Amino acid sequence: MTAPALTTLRRTPLRRLAGVDRLAVAGAVLLGVVVLAALLAPWIAPYPGDGGSATHPLEALLPPSGAHWFGTDQVGRDVFSRVLFGARTSLLIAVAVLAVSGVAGVVLGVVAGYAGGWARDVIMRVTDIFLAFPALLLSLALAVVLQPSVTTVIVAIAVTWWPWYARLTASVAASVATRGFVDSARCLGVPAPLIVLRHVLPNSLTPVLVQLSLDGGGVILTAAALSYLGLGAHEPTSEWGLMVQQGQSLFTTDWWVVTFPGLAILVTAFSFNVLGEGLRARLSR
Amino acid sequence: MNLISVRDLVVRIGDRVIASVPELDVAAGECVALVGESGSGKTTTLLSTLGLVHGADVRGRIMVGDVDVLTASPARLREIRGSRAALVMQSPQAALNPTMRLGTLMSRALARHGVKGADARERAEEGVRAVLLDPEILRRYPHQVSGGQAQRFAIALALALGAQVVLADEPTSALDVTVQAEVVAVLRRLRDERGLAVLLVSHDLALVSTIADRVVVMRDGAVVESGSAAEVFARPSDPYTRELIAAVPELPEAVPAPPEPADLHEGEGP
């Protein structure tokens, strides 16, 4: 009778996830493939130089073949190589945006949630102001003011992204702050900053982690949109949104130039979403 | 000398007096029980002894050892919380941070009060053994221990921190009957063997009768009767106390011992 209970304790989170939600595992695996592609791009890309500024005018717009699995673009670069290098840009943007906005949002949220009173009022009203802007327009405005670059994309998206985490964390932290172990920490003479750090924060993180995972896809889509509009990465950087933008006029004649980077965006965003959904189902029980 | 000494305590919220206690002393090796119905002010009285009542006006004189709680600095208050008098709460598992192993929690609490390294490990294990738990429990997370174990751990924490008084707020009401007995047995043993003092808040008179030396009966924030437990239970002078005692189905002579572990295996085939 006791044996199954014991093995449950020893199971790793991933194994438990596997038992529950195969779609989420598929998402995790796909995302792993994308991460590997990003990390290993210089070594596994068939034409590493094509990730950057190389041009091969004689090989322009070749359809997919054994030599060029995804065909070549207007200046003869291998689209497969560029999609691999594009994974680096997209994941870098996603990770940077989630890290910056996640840290900022969680810190402000947990302070607001635990402290309450005027501190919460100030932080949450500022958060509300940011949330009142249409996110993409604010990002666009920022991207226009700053010079178009990958850093600009990160800053522009992070600025519109953190308030969600602040609001989410504040509500969770406020409820964690009323739980018994916070009282008992206070009764043991633990000062407020340590209570926030050791007791409120770790117990407020789960919903934020789920949200971060769900948002990975959104960040990649937004980054692609900014680059598509010419406000993000620029030539010769490999970036999926930029590649879609440059290939769109060729869609009727040379479909592969736009289709493969588009698919890469789709697959990555989809993986983030199903993984996040799986985590939510798993952790909210 | 009294470990806790309260004089003319009055706690008000606005114009309403929520607790008024003219005199309350707890000496070493003594168990004093505050009894009464919900809202009678017993928990407020308990919390005010460590300056943990917020949003209310607290007057009077509260001494924990030589520290005057109402005039002490916040730093001094943090210092005595846990190390002089430690709180044991109603729902033991809610009182433990679910993301921390019990040992981590214990060593953090000890470090907060200046005990670190090998000394801290020793005190943690000694505290855990004193409440009849296996030190192995220090490696577990709160969800891996039972309610009774968690409650005994809370007492072990108080002991490790060197608390001479345990402030127990309904320490058994979230536990089932056999586990209640376990916790009460541990408290009694520590009182008898180590002179641990207990300030107990409870509405469970059956529990109170098995452990308390003195009883303070409260109603609507005021003390209606106080005296030795034997006296109060045998000859309650106040009508409200008589009502409370009459409401108890029976007062057992002694707390039944927890079942032998062997009982659990009965009926299982070879």
UniProtKB/TrEMBL annotation, chain A:
Residue stretches spanning the membrane: 23-45, 91-117, 129-162, 255-275
Subcellular location: Cell membrane
GO terms, biological process: transmembrane transport
Superkingdom of source: Bacteria
Cellular-component GO terms for this entry: plasma membrane
Principal subcellular localization: membrane
Cross-referenced Pfam families: BPD_transp_1, OppC_N
Swiss-Prot/TrEMBL keywords: Cell membrane, Membrane, Transmembrane, Transmembrane helix, Transport
InterPro entries named among the record's database cross-references: BP-dependent_transpt_permease, MetI-like, MetI-like_sf, OppC_N
The UniProt record lists the keyword Coiled coil: no
Annotated membrane topology: Multi-pass membrane protein
Domain (ABC transmembrane type-1): residue spans on this chain: 87-276
PANTHER family xref list: D,D-DIPEPTIDE TRANSPORT SYSTEM PERMEASE PROTEIN DDPC-RELATED, OLIGOPEPTIDE TRANSPORT SYSTEM PERMEASE PROTEIN APPC
Similarity comment: family membership: Belongs to the binding-protein-dependent transport system permease family.
Protein name: Cytochrome c550
Organism: Microbispora bryophytorum
